[in-house]
Amino acid sequence: MKLRSAVRHTLVLGLLAVLGTTVTSTATATADPASPPNSQVDATGRPRSGWEAIGPNSIGGMLGVTTSPTRLAMMEPAPPMLWLSDDRGASWSARRELPQDTVIQAFVVNPTDDNRMLAIGTKQEGRGDQWRGKLLATTDRGRSWQTLQEWWPEGAFQLAADPSGRTIAVMQMNGVSISTDGGASWRVVPRTWPREGIAAPLGDQRMTMVGDDLYFTTVHPEYSLWAVRGIHAAEPKAERVYRAEDEVNQVASDGRQLVVTVGAELRGSADGGKTWTVLRRDPAGQRLREPRFVNGRLYTATYQDLDVSTDGGRTWARKPVPSPGEGVTDIADLPAGAGKPAATLISALYRGVYTDKGKAGYEQIGVPGESMRELVTTGSFWQPQSLVAAGMQEIYNTPLPRGRITPSTRVWQSHPGDRLHENAFLSVSPNRPDVVWQVTKNGFNTDVLRSGDGGRTWQLVNHGLEGAPQAFLVNPADPDQMLISAFSMFGYVTYRSEDAGKHWERTDAPGFLTLAGDSWNRNRIWGGGTDGLHRSDDGGKTWTQVSDEPTTSLAVSRWGEGRVLAGGAGLRLSTDNGRTFRPVHEGAGNPREFTRILAHPFDPRVWFASRIGEDGVGVLRSTDFGRTWSPLPGAMPDSRVVSLAISADGGQLFAGTSQSGAYRLTLY
């Protein structure tokens, strides 16, 4: 046994003695499930407060503002979710009534009535050039949506509407549909512009309406600007307006001036596209993107910088984007009112919505729409504690929240620019709680990273392991031993390391979606997947199947009494080291319903289980060693809970949701 492991066991045994827990003289601690230990820590009472949103407010999208000085909307494109704020972005509520199998390509809010909104939703079906597109409308601020029109297999990709919402244009693969009566009836302008293969007009800012003309940019093989002239006439006609030596990409207009991005330049026309001038050329030759007119100001950006002109493009001022490397997704002005000045909002899809504070920089205001795939806590009683989270493409960290959660204390650090933390998994061994480990997808391979400062900085330990990670474990009994389950082009593979990730051994094993270890036996490992539950008694070298029930979550008691909990479509309990299991909670039928199982660090009676629930129940708790389960009190705005973590003292429980960030529940 390594020295650190021996010291930890000594400390634990001493703590058990102080708490009055019976410990045998053997190397394995035992606890009689029939007589709970007389612990000074009691986590079975009613939690002190309800669930509190703690962030990170790290998601942006398409903005919708009106004449209201307080109300604003933001559309998260995939899976589609409408976020609403009634207090200028200080707090947000979510609505998920949109079809969850579509991607929102465009979104507009009626400028005088924020109850009325339009959205284009698209999903690919059948062959590569077959799409199902829908024009969706709401008149009650997203409580319900109606399909005004559906296009298949042409799809729907771009949307433009006049301020009244009566004239609407939607682009498909091979034409443009136009309605002049709010979507009740439609005419189609057939495609006369070039298009090859499965090229689709994806991306934003490719269409704008100017009076009786509709301007749009085309895609492969000809990247040009076209227009449909006379959209209110009986027979509108399409014509090419501008073809440049480089790709014409995005287009915008304020009704007087037309601008397009062409490579590293922004070009403008004041005569409907007859003549063009270069308004802006990026000094470093970076491609310009996201042209926008906002209240008399003209914007364009790179992934690093944001340019603004107040005189139609004659002169420019430059400042960094809110999150370097991410660029800009949308820009809008929130009107002055309620004692607040007008505010310019800048959205970055994977970083959030920001208020432009001028020379003071940016203030992040939302939105809490991140999917928190993984949550872990680091540190201990005598060390600084942090909460570390893995989102869809990013790693976040924050000091462990204390006291009341406010916008000023809800501050998370992310790591833009260093790497894409995609499909990342996190693990911390209680034998070394100051170190958090990460495995993350890097192309077709897996990288291994280490952080010794609560996730603030990361060091690459090993890279190039074949396959994408599916599960990860740092052994709770030996922090130098690690296991990774990955999926490669040849199927599932498992990697073992005995030296803290420096060297890896590839072994044969089933495909695991979850891994768990025994705190008192470094050789006892559990692995669960779609084909059942497996056990290894030699540190993951060989495996024995113990159950054929799909298993997506696992936990082993920290107290060494042979208690194992497995989750999938329901919860199953073993009290004999996994030799037999019995059902203790019936699920709703989803084989991946239960996502995490977590033991309380000091009260062996208490366990927590997270689930993807549509019934408002995202976290269950057991206070009788896992025999029976009940929902934790307090409603959670998003009950699709995919991750769980607990503070070192057991007083705070953290839940990560599928698309609404993380929440905290104070237990005592």
From TrEMBL:
SUPFAM superfamilies: Oligoxyloglucan reducing end-specific cellobiohydrolase (SSF110296), Sialidases (SSF50939). It comes from Amycolatopsis samaneae. CDD domains: Sialidase_non-viral. The keyword Signal applies. Keywords: Signal. Residues 28-62 are annotated as: Disordered. The keyword Signal applies. PANTHER family: SORTILIN RELATED, SORTILIN-RELATED RECEPTOR. Residues 1-29 form the signal peptide. This is WD40/YVTN/BNR-like repeat-containing protein.
